[in-house]
Records
---
Amino acid sequence: MRRFTTIKDIAHALGISVATVSRALRNAYDVSSQTKQLVIEMAAKMNYKPNFNATGLVKRSTHKIGVIIPAITNYYFSTVITGIQEIAQQNDYHLILYITNDSEELEKKIVKDLSVSSMDGLLACICSPSDSCMHFQELIEDGLPVVFFDRVPDEIKVSKVMQDDYNGAYMAVKHLIDRGYQNIAHITGPKGGFLTENRLQGYLNALLDHGLSAKDDWIVYSGFSQKEGETDIETLFHGKDAVPDAIFAVNDRKAIGAIVALKRKNIKVGQEVGVIGFTNDPICEIITPTLSTVAEPAYEIGIKCCQMLIKHITKSNFKGNEVVLPGELIIRESTLRA
């Protein structure tokens, strides 16, 4: 089978990095004119046939954007997708959706199988730990524009759009304290995630600033589902002499799981144990008692991350940055004491 020349072959021949070759082919602002010329000449000499946008050699666009998300069935991600789709349609791009089901292994397989020739750019919400995302770095080095949103990797320095996890968590815990709750537990997501750690830090600092101490066994790591929220309550309350009088959940699904589990134990939610979540899923107003939460700007995140990606695709000198959008405290019955 015929072997086609790759940008790695060009990099090896010139003794420079793959990333530099990729940026040179895209006419990036941070590569010198001399280096760009060397790359173009070597590419022509080696009969390199680019299969994605390589400004200066070929201009071909698929007008497709890949989107990687952990789930599609919950309110937050479906709302983000709505925002992404609105901007994509306005700019004549089609979406290719990939669902990881919160599986790190599946995420790595999806990214490994992606072809840079099949899309112009990628939007990604990760489920891998923040320090285990080099599979995305390889795509970026191959020249694919990537923007991360919501759950983002700390180690990879590209454009990111996220909600203010730290201040949202701080606001939620401060609200519990202002309502008179003193023994506040935190049921959170997988350990090591950027979102998980930021919300944890907001929880810890809110306690510290108000003269309350955090207990290690009152911080429970697990997944993001309602079922795991129920299991976390069993961990906190089963056979314990001292139990929390309030729960801050990393998202609404876990908070709803906490309410279900507390009611199963005949514990009055709000009056005996307060519960607050993070998202503002519509089910917050349906469940009894209604759920206090921090509203995330999901639609705005979708709009902003897609706008940034299209700028990366269409403007070779667009530097990009990190965008952090604020949340809003929504007070309902689950944190109202008699």
---
Amino acid sequence: MPHDPHPALLHEALDLAARGLPVLPLRAGKLPVGNCPSCAGGRCGDRPHMKAAGPCQCTAPCHGWAAATTDPDTLTSPAWAPAWQQAAAVAYHPGGAGVTVVDLDDAAAIAWARATLPPTRTVATTRGEHWIYRGSMRSANGVRPGVDLKSAAAYARWLGPGTGALAPLPEAVCALVVKEPPPARPVVTVPAPGSGGECRHRTPTYLERGIAMAEQRISGASSAVHATVYRTFLAVLSAHGRCGCLTEGHIARLFTAAQVKGESARHCADAWTNARTRLGL
């Protein structure tokens, strides 16, 4: 026999929704309820890389942040009952509430924020603090050691109202998502196959098409971004890695596309190295 929805968490969610926070249930491990079949693949609007991504239109919670809602009828509907049965906490969509959460994961990150950012509302977390600013922006993970930004196309666990007044979103926070391309890792150059002549990959149109397609493949990833980045790097190196036609500019373009999707410079470098190792370059 199924259990009734978690009454305390549902009551908390309804209270937050009444105050204008789009909310959703989280199961153990701070994970959202899994995708439902009717919106698999992002058809309901959960596409973080799209500026126009909208709320989920399904009747059940799915796709994390896209399921967040302020509608009490939706939150208490039979379709949502299984989600509340699994719920271990309540989360909210900061971007939908018009705020940005600077997630500080440790003491060092908190010390950096206190020295760099203007005071604002703060909420204690298990290991650090959430600093909440008025205004929304693009979300990004790993913008600096121990610091994530949660706003558009993201969710944050509700840990209480916190203390202090909301301050406007400062430029110092917005600037954290504007990253310089990481230093390109050197590409091993080996002689082109054949008996001489210029490598066909040096043809500007051929090479440019390949790099542009790789950028599009990374930018279009709606899930499994890290795996997509690795497979794309592997494909590029398979086609162009043995003839010496790749330049630092080409590699920087690929790394930049990956970082826009939330990958860190370290992950980019690791994926590039692993792809080269697999191909024996």
